[in-house]
Design goal:
Structural class: mainly alpha
Oligomer: single chain
Helix content: 55-70%
Distance between the termini: 43 Å
Strand content: under 5%
Number of strands: 0
Number of helices: 9
Largest sheet: none
């Protein structure tokens, strides 16, 4: 197959990878993410980490819900319920969960960029398979892994569906898609690093 006849999706995915390469590396290098692979990682740390993630994902999902039309596949990429279930199974009460700090600086998501959100979320689901293997070995049966592993069995199928949809519907919005993905990665890394932006700077 000639280079010019390759599927357009490959070009969009590559544009996303190039646009987010530095952000992805910054997220992976945060102490919170690096600590997941430490042999001395504890259940208490893990529970706090999941609570921090919930504080980001709930506001993000609300922003996505405002941007997406009914029936958009992005609405099915809801991750906060898995985080809540993990926290409940590890002893957190609803009052404790509701009291967790939330990220208050989520910018409105451009509907044209929603594929960028899907790219980040589906990538994190596939990466979670690697993380959960380490967590199971380190933390054992006292921890719950719905967010990082137990609900990610279909991630490959979801990724294939995403790529097909991106090929069909994303080619006219590559700039918005990449900008959305970059913004979400930046928020993710800042929130986990507790280097929070000030209101009005997002």
């Amino acid at each position: 197959m000639s280079r010019t006849s390759e599927p357009r999706t490959q070009g969009i995915i590559e544009a996303l990878r190039c646009a987010t390469r530095l952000q992805h590396a910054s997220l992976a290098a945060t102490p919170a993410m690096a600590r997941l692979f430490h042999s001395a990682y504890t259940v208490s740390e893990y529970r706090a980490h999941l609570g921090r993630l919930l504080g980001l994902f709930e506001p993000l999902e609300r922003s996505v819900a405002r941007a997406a039309k009914p029936g958009n596949p992005v609405l099915a990429l809801e991750r906060s319920s898995a985080l809540r279930e993990d926290l409940r199974l590890m002893g957190a009460t609803e009052i404790e969960i509701d009291a967790l700090e939330r990220y208050h600086w989520v910018s409105p998501i451009d509907p044209a960029g929603l594929f960028g959100y899907s790219y980040v979320i589906l990538g994190s689901m596939m990466g979670g398979k690697i993380i959960v293997k380490r967590l199971r070995a380190t933390l054992g049966p006292t921890a719950s892994f719905h967010f990082y592993g137990d609900q990610n069995e279909c991630s490959e199928a979801l990724w294939a569906s995403f790529c097909s949809n991106l090929e069909e519907n994303g080619k006219d919005n590559v700039e918005a898609i990449c900008a959305t993905a970059v913004g979400i990665f930046d928020a993710y890394a800042a929130w986990l690093s507790q280097q929070l932006p000030q209101p009005g700077n997002c």
